[in-house]
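Quick one: structure for this chain?
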Amino acid sequence: MVDIEERRTRRKGTTFLLVVAAITFLLAAFTRLLGIDGTRHMVATTALTPYFTAAGVVLGALALLLRRWAVGTLTTLVAVVLVAAVAPRAFPDSRPVGVGREVTVMAANVLVGKADAGAVVAAVKAHDVDVLTVQELTPAMVLDLERAGLDEVLPFRHFLDEPGGSGSGVASRYPVFPRTLTPPSTLRQAGALVDLPGEDLEVLSVHPLPPVEAVGPESWQRDLAGLPDRELDGPVRVLAGDFNATLDHVGLRRLLNSGYVDAADQVGAGLDPTWPSGALWPPPVTLDHVLVDGRCPVDTFTVVDIPGSDHRAVVSRFVVPAR
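Got it. Here's what it folds into:
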């Protein structure tokens, strides 16, 4: 009799733990699936979608194995929906045919000027970068980049450097002309027209305010909403930088729906994390992106470690089609 009671108690305890875990998973899942960016905690939860998707698959399988049919079935079904949204990022899409000029764009968050400027310039040279966008660009970092030889490889620039983390800039192998591509934002986001031989390319150094600041995500939401949509009849446009958002956040998905493609997603590298660099906590996530006009076939995407920065740089090579 005692053994039966013990088994019942253990069974109830197991069921209770599975239900609690399932509820936690479902709350996180529906925050992502419904596109709810209400609080900074919800935004942070959405950034972890790949992690709790994997956890949901394991939890659902475990519940079914233990014959908790209702919990297992519901958890598994929702997990499958998330897998359908997340898993394709790990597989390359078919490359459309495109004829035009190949361009390599790199984005680097230099952590309020603490990054190794020599490593940034070395990456520019190693990857034959044509256009570099920089976030958290300080006056001191501008001098460090000059001393490291950035002007020798990317002689043209539009820098909005400032002390602290609000500066940004665009450096290019080709002439650049400043352009205002966003409404006023919390952090400065340098925009420029790059005068490619035969074609023009609009480039924006993206850096919305982090949504997990104590002030809440409202400024982040406003900054993301202010990023320009793809213009079908306008110049080819690329948005490159630290979006402080993953492909699971509704603000970034809006841009993709307007006609951009995520370069990493196109080549099957959409789950490669970019922040925090070299750390396991917080769980690494993908905050840095190169969003390319959908008319541009993407050839390559790479993440690059930059000593001194908490972000990994991102580099993509794509084709700007002839018009």
